[in-house]
Each structure stands twice: as structure tokens, then as C-alpha cells.
Amino acid sequence: MSADLQSRRTVIAGVGAGGLAMALAACGGDGGATSAAPQAQESSAAPSASASESASTGSGGGALTSAADVPVGGGTIFKEQKVVVTQPTAGQFKCFSAICTHKGCPVASVGDGTIDCPCHGSKFSIEDGSVKGGPATAPLAEVPIKVDGDAITLA
Fold it and tell me: Which SUPFAM superfamilies does the entry mention (predicted)?
């Protein structure tokens, strides 16, 4: 292979890696609760340290959010815990992994009854995490939560 062809391949590979880094940076954030649609809202309650620990260890913990901070027909994404809490109908709360099953990107918004991944356009139901639009073919994993009064905690 000529040095010129090898050099071009190196440049193309570098540009591809740079584009990927920019896309991943765009998916990242401040680690808090986020939303990007009218039906989703940002939680004003900061998750407790025990909630963060429980998400990473898989055990129960402190309050994740309050029921009042999860909009009916929408949801709230918790980047740090990698979960999304939804309220499909008044008083019914669900929690799912916030990691898309297609390529592992974090979901970025909740709106119009779906949890949406910005990377390739996959959409998941706020009711059961099922795929509503591909390319994902597997549903979001449900994450157990407890609702005690107004407090929602990871179970």
C-alpha cells in the first residue's frame, strides 16, 4: 500500500473518531435530570447521594425524585442514575433504563408518549419501554422503583 493511501486512511479515520467524539459529547451533559420536550421536565430536586449509590450498586436508596416532578403523559430523565421515570397516566409511575438498546446511547427526551434516543431515532413507550420506532429492536429494561407518598426511590 502506498504511503499516500495510508496517509488518507489515517486522516479519514481521525475525522471519523473526531465526529464520534462530538456526537458523544452532544449526548452527554451535567449528570442531572434532563428533558427536551414539553411533556418532560427537569427535576428541581437534586438526587441524594444514596440514590446515586443505589443506581450503581443495584440496591435501594434515597429519594430519586418527587411524584410532582414527573409530568403526566411524560417523564424525567436522570442521567447520573441512567434511568428515566415516566407517568403514563396520573398516579402510575414507571422507570426504565435510560440507555438505548440499539447502540447504547443515552436517551435525551420524553414527549408525545415516547422516550426518545437522539443517536439514531429510536423511540420507546413510556408505558412499558417497548419499541415504538427503530432501529432498536429490544425494549428498554424496566427498573424497579417504590412510590411512597410523593417520594419516588429506586427499589
Answer: ISP domain
Q: Are residues 117 and 131 in the same domain?
A: yes
Residues 137 and 115 in one domain: yes
pLDDT per residue as tens digits for the range 59-93: 456 679 999 999 999 999 999 999 999 999 999 99
Whether residue 131 contacts residue 139, with contact meaning beta carbons closer than 8 Å, is answered with yes
Rounded CA-CA distance 101/139 in Å is 7
Planar angle of CA 52, 56, 60, nearest 5 degrees = 70
Same domain for 23 and 92: no
The verdict on 99 and 120 lying in the same domain is: yes
Q: Is the pTM of this model over 0.85?
A: no
Supply the range of the domain harboring residue 24: 1-29
